[in-house]
Amino acid sequence: MKSSTSLKLRLPVLVFGMEVVMIALYAIFVTYDDNANAKMQNNVTDPMDNSMYRDYPFFADVQVMIFIGFGCLLAFFRFYGFSGMVFNFLTAAFTIQWAILIQGFFQFYYDGQIHLGVINLINAEFACAVVLISFGAVLGKTSPVQLLVMALLEIPVFSVTEWAVLKYIRINDAGGSILIHLFACYFGLGVTFVLYRPKLNQGHAKEITSYQSDILSVMGTLFLWVFWPSFNSALTLKGDDQHRAVLHTFIGLCSSTITAFALSAIFSKKGKLTMADIQNVTLAGGVTVGATVDMMISPVAAYALGIMGCTACYLGYRYLTPFMAKRMKIQDQCGIHNLHGLTGLISSTAAICAILLAKEETYGPSMYQIFAHRAPPMGDPKLLELQELIPGLKPGLGRTAKEQAYYQVAAIFATIAASAVGGVLTGLVMKMSFMASPTDDDCFDDELFFDMPSDFDKKTHKVKLN
């Protein structure tokens, strides 16, 4: 182990230092929310009314995506399986507890306390997904110290951006196509732009897959695929909105999957399927329907969006990723710009179209719940009429469809700008010499940071056969 990449002091100092900080912050600011606080219980409370039973299934599903789905998916390199899965595990565990605090400080501003419940964990998981998507851009080229620093810095930038967009611009983005996928993509691209390695454009001897690593990666794809409807529907309005979100996500995933198989065969010189296409392009439909997932876009639109997202994603992998690496100095290792950037842009555009086409004839009074910012403002007589039909309907901003569409466009540009700048600044920090960054020769190699098993031949990088 080279001294410049030794984790003996760097990793413990960073981890224990952050744990001391978080213990102090949790002790001072974090308490239970009403659904977890024993003081709020009484003899007439029905335990089944607790939000635990409504929200925990979504939390569990997203947790599987975070720790198993992403972990297996990132283990596709032949000699980087330990690192892909374990660094994902480490980063995710740190990010979720950090996100609870950072996101909670906006609640603290209003309530004077961070109230912790299952819904906070779900929000923290979404923030964690942002970091793990960005991680894909620098996979194999960074140390665990660098990844923790990236998470440490990305979460505040993401949380501030999310808060500003939702509070001041105010958009519809149920599945997170703008605030999760676009943000994560362009933050990751900003980081990898700063960490550019010219020699890697010529390829790397260890930048290869194997039969076993590809199977493991596809297992990650399957976990993500199966649980993606929960990811897209977790924070939508309960009831028919959430029902539509599940339906649209599943339809979009199905159409993108079969399209991916067709495209893989068409563009293959030998007419065969490519595992990289199955591992990544099949998931494009889940992102492409994200921004419209709770809207009345019709099942056929969800199907078409899945095809469009898959096609854009596939062509991006085939043509755009090499171009960006050679011409723009952006080495997008896992192609996050294709799976999350291009599809996020398509999804955001589809949402703008859906907003412009939304009418009461299609949605009924519930249009002002789904598009909450189009609801009449306080004092408008129409608000009282709508509240009689939908008890609990909150006052909106009285925006027209065109006005809301303009705000959606503004949110797209603001999110991309904030994430790209944040990514570049984070990359500059990660580039510092004490971050244990691997050399070009040591990239994509588990041996740099792990004690390898005895059945692993360190000289030939081949697993010994009995």
Describe what is shown at a glance.
With 466 residues, the chain is mostly helical. 63% of the residues lie in helices and 2% in strands. The longest helix is centred in the N-terminal third of the chain and has 31 residues, at 81-111.
Question: What brief labels describe this structure?
Answer:
4 strands, two-stranded parallel sheet, 2% strand, mainly alpha, 16 helices, Ammonium transporter fold, two-stranded antiparallel sheet, 466 residues
Categorize the overall geometry. Answer: globular
CATH superfamily: Ammonium transporter AmtB like domains
| Strand ordering within the main sheet | 1-2
Going by CATH, the architecture would be Orthogonal Bundle
Strand content: under 5%
Order of helices and strands: HEHHEHHHHHHHHHHHHHEE
CATH topology: Ammonium transporter fold
Structural Rg: 23 Å
Kindly give the count of domains.
Answer: 1
Distance linking N and C termini: 28 Å
Helix fraction, binned, reads 55-70%
Describe this structure in words.
Functions as an ammonia transporter. May play a role in the elimination of ammonia in the gill. The protein has 466 residues and is an all-alpha fold. The protein has a single domain (3-37, 52-357, 400-442), classed as Ammonium transporter fold (Orthogonal Bundle), CATH 1.10.3430.10. 63% of the residues lie in helices and 2% in strands. It has 16 helices and four strands. The strands form two sheets. It has a two-stranded parallel ribbon with strand order 1-2. A two-stranded antiparallel ribbon has the order 3-4. Strand 3 and strand 4 (462-463) form a beta hairpin. Helix 4 (118-135) packs across helix 5. It starts with 9 loop residues before the first helix and ends with a strand. 47% of the residues are buried.
